[in-house]
Automatic annotation (TrEMBL):
UniProtKB keywords: Membrane, Transmembrane, Transmembrane helix
The protein's name in its UniProt record: ABC transporter
Residue ranges of every copy of the ABC-type uncharacterised transport system domain listed in the record: 154-379
UniProt source species: Ferriphaselus amnicola
Segments crossing the lipid bilayer: 420-441
Signal peptide: none
Domain of life of the native organism: Bacteria
Domain DUF7088: 42-116
The keyword Transmembrane is annotated on this UniProt entry: yes
Amino acid sequence: MKIPPTSAKLQGLLLAALLAMLVTLGWFASQHHRVWDWTQNTANSLSPASVDVLKQLKGKIALTVFATEQDAEHGDLRQPVRDFIALYQRYKTDIALTFIDPSKQPELARQAGAQMNGEMLVEYDGRHERLTTLNEQTLTSLLLRLAHRKNQLIMYVDGHGERKLDGIANHDLGEFGKRLTQNGFRLSPLNLTLAQDVPDNAKLLAISQPRADWMPGEVEKLLRFLEHGGNVLWLLDNEPLHGLEPLAEKLGLVLTPGYVIDPAAVEQRAPATWALASAYPPHATTRDFSLITVFPFARALVWDENESWKHSVLVEAAPRGWVAPSLPLGKIAFDKSRDTPGPAVIALALSRNINERDQRIVVVGSGSFLANSFSGNGGNLDLGTNLINWLAAEDALIVTRPRAVRDDNLQLSRTQLTTIGTTLLLVLPLLLAGIGGWMWWRRRA
């Protein structure tokens, strides 16, 4: 069967148009680079937290990987590293990646102190660290540590049974302390009965709930630190202040007893004494922060407005809840004769200018918020880290922790791989060729 000239001409025009479109698309793609990640957990792109960290790093980052071209157990180690680092180079073009083969250049590996195949040396702004496990969390956290230029000192009060930033007990703050250490801070306990004063090199002082009374002399040292412009993180529990009443008075806080009760927590099968927060007033510590945070056994914070301090609400929780004077027994219910309706302010920031410096204070009405038992809930550790960064005047480094990517690798057996390969490379082409031949024969008939 002959094809009419008009039809043949039309087919020629369509083919020419198709070729022109392909050429145009190819030119456009070469001029405008765009990437879309449609994977379930966006495994082929960086989280916003990692992108934010890269924006803070001004200047070149040098990555040196000590890896052989082929590993007996893992095969090619270099290509996966190239592919992964390319995600970072997409947002920061001055990241240099270099490979050194320890078997061919043993002297260079020895001088650099490389100890294992695949180890990475990260250098930035005259500082360096090593990385042995490569994923987004480990690399971004390392870059965040290098972004802290001053290796700032955080001191935490000890000697009255307080929660310890390096402690492993359930009520301690050890996991939070690990996060701060990972981010480049130095931690040190401070016993004010022994120290003459809070050291001048302390960037901020962390105070948690004491179990024994402070001595008057210790309180005087704390107030002196405050008067000199020192920054403070105060984690309050629903317990007596044990001598810290002058600190509350200095900050204008009105601390009445009572527990925040949240029906939303009960709906999530959590205790009613867990106050939940999911929306946050505008502040540097909560910029782009949208994670749920949990505040067990929280107390509400109330303050007297005065000209000395600027007060900013950081966390409001339990919008459908209330503040009860005592722990609830049995079924929870609002009692308007004794309960105060929510929402309740649980975290508060105070700031002022004193001695020609900006002084920053954060008060949180739940010490359990960052305790080892509860810090893994929601975004507790992320918010706690943001609070510390703000107190340390590292506002630019306030980011959300990069996500942990789920392992969605598909593991196939040799038989399955053979079946898939045979189908794609043999069966499918033959099927398409057969269909094409049949259509050609039909047209010829």
